[in-house]
Amino acid sequence: MRFQNSVFVDLLKPIDRRAFGQIVARHKGDAYDKSFKSWDHLVVLIAAQLGGETSLRSLEAAFNANSGSHYHLGVRRIARSTLAEANARRPVGVFADLFARLSCELDRRTRRDGAELLRLIDSTPIPLSKFHDFARSNGRIHGMKMHVVYDPGVDRPFCVEVTPANVNDVEIGKKTPIEAGATYVFDKGYYDFKWWRDIHEARALFVTRPKSNTRLTDLADREMPQTRGEGYTVLRDCEVELASKGDSKLPMPLRRLHIQRDALKDGKPQLIVVITNDMTRSAVEIAALYKARWAIELLFRWIKQHLNIRKFLGENENAVRLQLIAAMIAFVLLRIAAHRHDIELAHLRFSELAGRFLFERRPIDRLERPPPKYQAARRRISPRQLELAYA
Fold this sequence. Notes:
Layout: H1 7-12, H2 17-27, H3 38-51, H4 56-65, H5 67-70, H6 80-89, H7 92-110, E1 118-127, E2 136-137, E3 142-151, E4 156-164, H8 169-173, E5 183-185, H9 193-201, E6 205-208, E7 216-221, E8 228-229, E9 232-242, E10 254-265, E11 268-276, H10 283-291, H11 294-306, H12 317-340, H13 347-356
């Protein structure tokens, strides 16, 4: 009978064990937990994400119950006390560097020639309970933030960072490597003239919304051959400059667009003002770029609804960070598997089935089909024995 890997093994195949070992050595990830190594820890946390385990006790029971299916990965039975200690001590950089490597692998598999370099930047709050005494409040939530740079064209998140909730978004945005020729789209949380200037000087573009107190002087109205887009209308496209003087002056050409959405808010049309340093694209294309920012909100919604980041396997900060990065690793592994095996299922259905059949031995590209029925081998009849057959 042909050997068949479990679904979990196939999902973990993109992880290069040798490269992961180098990452562990660089961060000294196995310095304190020699019996429960970084590889064991990684496999267990990914299994918790895909299997939807919400406590150390349930994770221990579910993982050990399937020990016959994951022994060949080099992972043994786990104890929740050992896992709790590893969650508190293992360096977050081990998982963060692995995520960055897998993100590049996803980009290599899904990148299309001539695809537009679009980067969406945003953060999502991670509420924590009062038992997480390390958490901070920003006036709206008590917890942490997960900051993500996202490429919607290839469904690729990268540059993930977890911070306390009171850290300003723009402080993390400034750490984002700027790619020449890319367009960065973000909201008012990343309002910083110096950073905008850095983006422009790196030969990149940005599209964002100015604050209401930003004083802009109109220079000239631009022609708009087309004003209608999908779900919106561009009312005005104007070249502008900052009215303020001194250090806050932006040494670059700027455009301000007034966009009216078709969808009503409180029974009234919603007007959006957008500012950009892109002087080439049409007004409708600029408006479409800002509309594309909704894709990162959908990413956050998907992660929160279908991965395990609502209940945490530890009450210390290190455990929360490790679990959030493990969730993003699980997300990328699902996307790589979908592209590698040409999965036609919706992302939601594929992730649900992968979690349900995680330790079963079945082809990952046929999760939605029932396994073939077992056909018993026909008993061989001796040539000296009479056989009754119908004519």
